[in-house]
Amino acid sequence: MSSGPLSPPPPPPLPHTEDTDAYDTSGRYIVRLLPINDLPSLHATDEYKKGLITKIIYSNDATAGGDGSSSRMLSAFKTNDHPSTLTITGVPLSCWRGVLKNVPGSLPPHEGSENPTTSKSFENFRALRLGSFHVILVSLASSSFSPGPILVLQGLRYKGNIGAIIRTAVQANLFQSVVVIDPVYDANAKNNDRVEAKDVDYYSLMNAPLIDIIYMTDLSEFQSYANSTETNKNRKWLATHLNNSAINMFSPLASPHLLAAAHTSFVFLGSEGVGLPDEFIEDSRCTCMRIPSMSSSINVGAAAAMLIACISMQKLKVRE
């Protein structure tokens, strides 16, 4: 009796290592739900005393419709004195529902009806229920993470690009904050509208509320900010730019600059059309990186994702 063709041998198992300490896989922030009933005791925690808590986000609609005790506890907590590093923000239900999707483990997939209307209604109900008794807490994983890198978006004109970049930045869990600088008015440009926070929230799929975003009107405002503190004055500058002196981002020469950018730095991305202005590129603190490509035509959102990935990879390499 003939037999069929022999099956190929199974592939060898992937190598396994227990040496997980060789890589720094920690993120900058911890994002979690906190029961509103725990707010009165939050002041007594080391996390609060050390100023590690940076954001508390709550649902305006849910807390207004929840039980009276939760609403009173939240109101009392908001009236107390808090560290200047802590911001407490109320958001509408639509925003709350979106932000919940970016809180690890808060909204497991619904396994109910496939009817979109029913699914959306259930999602609203679940978000409203969670918001009636919980807030979202954002805190630094360790005091060693402060200060951290700051992402600077200069002159971007398209809300979708800004939102996608901020979504990537939040999920990379690397940056201290994001600076958005308005584009210079251009009579020939299709879009001269100022990007507003509500646009960034929407186009980032509600990732934006989880990170500090500073909106600036022009380059002079940023220059003042960059020189406002000793920490900012001493930051390394890293920028994506196409010029002859720019370092290939994928080359070994880029590694030390990318590693420095993972710590205390300004990381710059310029506008879709003309890139970064000369005053940034020519600053003595600035190291320019170029992304190798066939025709130097890369969407700024894609460029941001590649740059952030390269910075994160260098951060992972704690030791040989």
UniProtKB/TrEMBL annotation:
<feature type="domain" description="tRNA/rRNA methyltransferase SpoU type">
    <location>
        <begin position="150"/>
        <end position="308"/>
    </location>
</feature>
<dbReference type="InterPro" id="IPR001537">
    <property type="entry name" value="SpoU_MeTrfase"/>
</dbReference>
<dbReference type="Pfam" id="PF00588">
    <property type="entry name" value="SpoU_methylase"/>
</dbReference>
<dbReference type="GO" id="GO:0008173">
    <property type="term" value="F:RNA methyltransferase activity"/>
</dbReference>
<dbReference type="InterPro" id="IPR029026">
    <property type="entry name" value="tRNA_m1G_MTases_N"/>
</dbReference>
<feature type="compositionally biased region" description="Pro residues">
    <location>
        <begin position="1"/>
        <end position="15"/>
    </location>
</feature>
<dbReference type="GO" id="GO:0003723">
    <property type="term" value="F:RNA binding"/>
</dbReference>
<keyword id="KW-0489">Methyltransferase</keyword>
<dbReference type="GO" id="GO:0006396">
    <property type="term" value="P:RNA processing"/>
</dbReference>
<protein>
    <recommendedName>
        <fullName>tRNA/rRNA methyltransferase SpoU type domain-containing protein</fullName>
    </recommendedName>
</protein>
<keyword id="KW-0808">Transferase</keyword>
<dbReference type="InterPro" id="IPR029028">
    <property type="entry name" value="Alpha/beta_knot_MTases"/>
</dbReference>
<feature type="region of interest" description="Disordered">
    <location>
        <begin position="1"/>
        <end position="22"/>
    </location>
</feature>
<dbReference type="GO" id="GO:0032259">
    <property type="term" value="P:methylation"/>
</dbReference>
